[in-house]
UniProtKB/TrEMBL annotation:
Its main location: cytoplasm. Homodimer. It holds the Pfam family ISPD_C. Keywords: Cytoplasm, Nucleotidyltransferase, Transferase. This is D-ribitol-5-phosphate cytidylyltransferase. Pathway: Protein modification; protein glycosylation. GO terms for molecular function: D-ribitol-5-phosphate cytidylyltransferase activity. It comes from Geotrypetes seraphini (Gaboon caecilian).
């Protein structure tokens, strides 16, 4: 069933060096599609919501996985397999987060049956009433494995093109043992000789589709390994490719917390400092840049006069930046911060991840009390409340400015600690607060 009116949105060791986008597509020279089984109920996770629809940074887990596949331009179609009662939910997720190249298919009672339904979307006899054009290679990837990059997708795809089947593996952490019917140790497997089978996996489409067509009901209902089906029914021994530690599957509640923590760490990697050209703000900006660089991979600075649109901001980064620090002088009000928020609102930047803006305001505490300056800047609460509606998190930070370089460095160091914590945590609970260092 295709939801909605149209289709929403070698020897493998000598693999080609990592290629991206169009270059990879040309190098591959084949059509590639993906099937993401997402029709499970997440019993081991517990709770009422199936884990693929649990939020990570206020966005469903499945949207993070779909996004990972959308970044890969040479994957033409993404078939997402969900239960009938989650079709509307999935359509709304696709709509809200602007996912493209996605076709929805109804799931089955087991993972294998869901994957089989996903593959049927490409079958020439149109068993689902419609047909996407058949790919030469199809990638199968659990929708609850959000950390999948182009490198591993390219490797399993090129291997499947050459060998017919391929899958990601990881070293075992625990030793595998077999038990006797009365619950005692029967034997253990030599851990060094065994691996954990992960995802993504990739197959020549005709091989895996034929395997599913021949599959016994027992295998469809109790099997857990697509590579096994290719071997058992099509005599294809899959090529195994060591993947990164991030290929794990979200299964238990703890996995959701780990996923959110990893994504927050990844978002921390780029920060943009925006200052006007006044002496005090430029001085604080340089100090902040110097100190922040010890904790963040990429720190760039831009003059607020150049901050006419986010393209000026984003042009400095190879990837998108989701963290901004506006430095405002000792006489500032909120116009500068409001302007940055307006620029950020004018883009789709905050659709996928919360964007953080720390609004730093200088104070000369010899001349003015903190309480008066906080009172002066009380407008941050309303500004932050409005910005939150667009997934922009605005925090205030009052920083004591002094001509004494040593004292100023100490203050900016403390301020950097607060700013890093705010960016890393992205807590909606602190928006609109004026913190003080
Ligand atoms: N009938 C099913 C069962 C599972 N899956 C999908 O297969 C992937 C891996 O399965 P698993 O981690 O076992 O998910 P659940 O079956 O939901 O988890 P549980 O076994 O804890 O219920 C998940 O993306 C899940 O949604 C599916 O598409 N159809
Ligand atoms: O059994 P589950 O549905 O939890 O996991 C399904 C697959 O992810 C799992 O079997 C991997 O080892 C890859 O085949």
């Amino acid at each position: 069933m295709q939801a909605g009116s149209e289709q929403l949105g070698s020897p493998c060791e000598q693999l080609a060096p990592l290629l991206h986008g169009a270059e990879a597509a040309n190098r591959l020279g084949i059509s590639v599609a993906a099937v993401l089984p997402a029709g499970g109920s997440g019993e081991r996770m517990g709770g009422g919501t199936p884990k693929q629809f649990c939020n990570i940074l206020e966005r469903p887990l499945i949207s993070h996985t779909v996004q990972a596949f959308e970044r890969v331009t040479w994957i033409r179609d993404i078939v997402v397999v969900v239960t009938e009662d989650n079709l509307d939910l999935m359509k709304s997720i696709i709509q809200q987060y602007g996912h493209s190249r996605v076709t929805l298919v109804e799931g089955g009672a087991t993972r294998h049956r869901s994957i089989f339904n996903g593959l049927r979307a490409f079958a020439e006899n149109k068993p689902l009433g419609f047909q996407l054009s058949k790919p030469e290679v199809v990638i199968i990837h659990d929708a609850v494995r959000p950390f999948v990059d182009e490198d591993i997708l390219f490797k399993v795809t090129t291997s499947a093109k050459e060998c017919g089947a391929s899958g990601a593996i990881r070293p075992l952490v625990s030793t595998v043992i077999a038990s006797t019917p009365d619950g005692c140790l029967d034997h253990s497997l030599e851990r060094a000789r065994h691996r954990a089978s992960e995802m993504p996996q990739a197959f020549a489409f005709d091989i895996i589709y034929q395997a599913y067509l021949q599959c016994s009901d027992y295998d469809l209902d109790y099997g857990t390994e697509c590579l096994h089906l290719a071997q058992k029914y099509c005599n294809k021994k899959a090529k195994l490719i060591e993947g990164s530690p991030d290929l794990w599957k979200v299964t238990y509640k703890r996995d959701l917390y780990a996923t959110e923590s990893i994504i927050k760490d990844n978002l921390l990697q780029q920060v943009c400092i925006i200052t006007d050209m006044k002496e005090d703000t430029v001085q604080v900006g340089f100090l902040l840049h110097e100190i922040l660089k010890t904790q963040v991979k990429q720190v760039k600075g831009i003059s607020s006069s150049l901050c006419k649109n986010v393209h000026h901001l984003q042009n400095m980064f190879t990837e998108q930046c989701f963290n901004f620090i506006g430095i405002n002088d000792k006489d500032s009000n909120f116009f500068g911060t409001q302007h940055i928020v307006d620029v950020l609102k004018s883009t789709s930047l905050a659709v996928l991840y919360p964007v953080v803006l720390v609004s730093v305001h200088l104070i000369v505490s010899e001349n003015m009390s903190y309480s008066s300056r906080v009172e002066e800047l009380s407008g941050i609460r309303e500004l932050a409340k409005e910005a939150k509606k667009k997934n922009i998190l605005v925090y205030g930070l009052l920083m004591d400015y002094t001509k004494d370089n040593l004292r100023l460095r100490e203050t900016v160091t403390q301020g950097t600690t607060v700013i890093t914590a705010l960016i890393k945590d992205r807590s909606p609970g602190l928006i609109g607060q004026m913190l003080v260092v």
